[in-house]
Design brief:
With about 375 residues, this protein is an alpha+beta fold. About 50% of the residues lie in helices and about 15% in strands. Bound molecules: flavin-adenine dinucleotide (FAD).
Length: about 375
């Protein structure tokens, strides 16, 4: 049985997020883009409405919503400003390995407080010398009695300066490759943590991206998530839950650009008629609409699969590559449709084009998604449906 109709609850949630994005995010987007100021107050309002941390299980007092509902929300929030929605969504990314591999006690310790007041968390895997090639990380965690001592440097960490705790992957046995990595939760106030400067990025400037350095940071053994050697697996399994949501954000940014382009193409005239009536422009809009719809369908399927207990790694990569590449193309074409005005900061589409780019980079680049898809297909002898 196949159905594409949202339940009443899902539709209400989507409307709530859409209204919030329109009233509370979009009006502040240009300010945070220009200043790079962290959007704490916008996040606070989203948090109060229950639009953040929707993944926290019901038994901990959370909404316990699925990845699918997270996607519905994130498409809307990102349509308002993806720098702001990324700040909110980084909590989902940091929490995902805890949800996947944490004990009940650990879930209570790290996830429940996200509901008590506005708090942030961060996912620390990437390092200056290792992004796509996670095996190349150098951070070490050495067991000393009842604790581990962490040393290393993480890079490009979203929510780096505002997080209350970090999910960190480090080698406990460097000779064992990916099976020699372990995962830890490190509270922000622990001695030996140094937070770098806010990075000046091309887009999504509301989001806080930093280097985080760990120098002889002592982490109790009870803060290890999963067994020793499971760090890489947990970090990757987290992506099965978060790539659909990030991809939904890319659909949201693309949709916002398309809506601006449609309006502008109907208002702007050249050669005696609205530019929308020139077929070259109309076809750009047609491509935007069909490719965004296809992206959304992949997002929904990849989310549905994981929510229903099916493997979704390959579909999460389909969704991520398709939505990120579509978002980049749609926002670039929107700038084209606006002509000279598209290139100007007083019009909205240049920001959307800058914001779009990172969807092809973070949570696995578009090349890495193709690598995952190809490996999966070739090892099985053909694609699954
Ligand atoms: C704004 C921002 C926020 C981020 N937030 C976080 C965060 O919160 N936590 C975190 O841990 N990380 C985060 N990242 C890091 C991000 O996940 C990495 O930047 C990304 O995985 C790419 O790694 P890299 O930058 O080291 O590039 P590299 O891995 O060095 O890749 C460089 C280029 O080579 C290509 N490439 C590499 N290997 C292959 C291959 N085998 N085949 C084909 N092409 C290949 C890549 O696709 C890319 O185009 C963030 C990054 C940015 C920019």
């Amino acid at each position: 049985m196949i159905g594409f109709t949202l339940s009443q609850e899902q539709e209400s949630l989507r409307q709530l997020a859409r209204e919030f994005a329109r009233k509370e995010i979009a009006p502040h987007a240009a300010h945070h883009d220009a200043t790079g100021e962290f959007p704490r107050e916008v996040c606070r309002k989203a948090w109060e409405l229950g639009l953040m941390n929707t993944h926290v299980p019901e038994e901990l007092g959370g909404l316990g919503l699925g990845v699918f509902e997270g996607c519905l929300i994130n498409e809307e929030l990102a349509a308002g400003c993806s720098g702001i929605s990324t700040a909110m969504e980084a909590n989902t990314l940091a929490s995902a390995p805890v949800l996947v591999g944490g004990s009940d006690e650990q879930k209570k310790t790290w996830l429940a407080p996200l509901l008590e007041e506005l708090r942030f968390a961060a996912y620390c895997v990437t390092e200056p010398n290792a992004g796509s090639d996670v095996q190349g990380i150098r951070t070490r965690a050495v067991r000393k009695g009842d604790a581990y001592v962490l040393n290393g440097e993480k890079m490009w960490i979203t929510n780096g300066s505002v997080a209350d705790w970090y999910f960190v992957v480090a080698y406990t046995d460097p000779s064992a490759g990916t099976k020699g990595m372990s995962a830890f939760i490190v509270p922000r106030e622990t001695d030996g943590i140094e937070v770098g400067k806010k990075e000046r990025n091309m887009g999504q400037r509301a989001s806080d991206t930093r280097a985080i350095t760990f120098r002889d940071v002592v982490v109790p053994a009870g803060h290890r998530i999963g067994e020793e050697g499971q760090g890489w697996l947990l970090a990757m399994k987290a992506f099965d839950r978060t790539r659909p949501t990030v991809s939904a954000g890319a659909v949201g940014v693309g949709r916002a650009a398309m809506e601006h382009a449609i309006r502008y193409a109907q208002e702007r005239s050249t050669f005696g008629k609205p530019i929308a009536e020139h077929q070259a422009v109309a076809f750009m809009i047609a491509d935007m609409a069909k490719d965004l719809e296809a992206s959304r369908l992949l997002v929904w399927k990849s989310a549905w699969l994981v929510d229903n207990g099916h493997p979704n790694t390959q579909f999460a990569s389909y969704a991520k590559a398709m939505a990120a590449d579509t978002c980049m193309r749609v926002t670039t074409d929107a700038v084209q449709i606006f002509g000279g005005y598209g290139y100007n900061t007083e019009y909205p589409v240049e920001k959307l084009m800058r914001d779009a780019k990172v969807f092809q980079i973070y949570e696995g680049t578009s090349q890495i998604q193709r690598l995952i898809i190809a490996k999966s297909i070739l090892s099985r002898g053909g694609p699954t449906s």
